[in-house]
Amino acid sequence: MMVRFIGSRRLIATLGVLALARSAAAQSRQLFSVQGAAMLTSLQGDAFDLLRIGTGFGGEVQLRLNPGPFSLGAGVQMTRHSSTSQGLTNNAVLSGLFFEPRYAIAVSSRIVRPYVAGRVALMSQRTDLGDIGGTLPVKANALAYGVGGGFVARINGHVGFDLGAALTSLNFGDFKYRDTGATSGIDAGSGTMFVLKAGFNLGLGKD
C-alpha cells in the first residue's frame, strides 16, 4: 500500500514538472489560444504597380495550438489599400487564409518569449480598375509564403501581448472579372508583402 502511495506521488510530481516545463517554453500556458492583431501591410513589386497602392491597414484572427516551444496557428487576415493616381482613386482589398508555425526561443526571461515563424497564405486581391469610362471589378489569387518573427510578452496567466513582423512573396495570375469569372487578360503580377502586426493572445481553458 505504501509503495503504491509513493509511486502515485512520484507520478504526480513528474507530471507537474512536465507541465511547468511546457508552460515555461510555450508562448501560452494553455494548449489552445486565440489571437487577434491589428496589421500594417506594405506592398511592393509589379503586382501593385498597376494600381499604385502601397501601405494598407487591417487585422487578423488566428487559433493556435501550443503543445510546447513549437506551435501551430491558422486564421484569416484582411487589409484595405487605397491611393490616387492621375486623378483616379484606386481601392483594393487583400484577404486570405494563412497557416503560421512558430518556434519559441528559450531565453532567461519568464515574461518575454521571442519566436521565429513561417507563413503560408492563400491570398485574394479584389479591386476596381478605374479609367475615364468607369470601373472594372476584378480579382486575382496568389499563394504567399515567407518568414517572420516577433515576441510574446505575458501580461498574466491567460493574456499576452504579441508584436511580430513577416515578409512574404506572392505571385498573382491574371485578373478575372468578379461578375463573370472570365479572364481579363491583365496580368496582376508578382511582389512582396511586408506585415507588421500587434495584438493580444488569449489562452483558452485552464493552465
Q: Which word captures the global form?
A: elongated
Q: Give the biggest beta sheet.
A: 8 strands, antiparallel, barrel
Identify the CATH architecture.
Beta Barrel
Low-confidence stretches: 11-24
> What is the alpha-carbon Rg in Å?
22 Å
Query: What is the C-level CATH assignment?
Result: Mainly Beta
- Counting DSSP H or I runs of 4 or more residues, the number of helices is 2
Q: Secondary-structure element sequence?
A: HEHEEEEEEEEE
Helix and strand content put the structural class at: mainly beta
Kindly estimate the percentage of residues that lie in beta strands according to DSSP.
over 45%
Q: Looking across the biggest beta sheet, what order are the strands in?
A: 1-2-3-4-5-6-7-10
Give me the CATH fold name. Porin
Could you describe the 3D structure shown?
Helix content is 14%, strand content 65%. It is mainly beta and 207 residues long. The chain has one domain (2-204): Porin (Beta Barrel), CATH 2.40.160. An 8-stranded antiparallel β-barrel has the order 1-2-3-4-5-6-7-10. The longest helix has 24 residues, at 2-25. It is elongated, with a radius of gyration of 22 Å.
Quick take:
With 207 residues, the chain is mostly beta strands.
What layout of secondary structure does this protein have?
Elements: H1 2-25, E1 32-44, H2 46-49, E2 56-65, E3 70-85, E4 88-104, E5 112-131, E6 134-154, E7 159-172, E8 174-177, E9 183-187, E10 190-204
Antiparallel strand pairs: 1-2, 1-10, 2-3, 3-4, 4-5, 5-6, 6-7, 6-8, 7-10, 8-9
Highlighted features:
eight-stranded antiparallel β-barrel, 207 residues, mainly beta
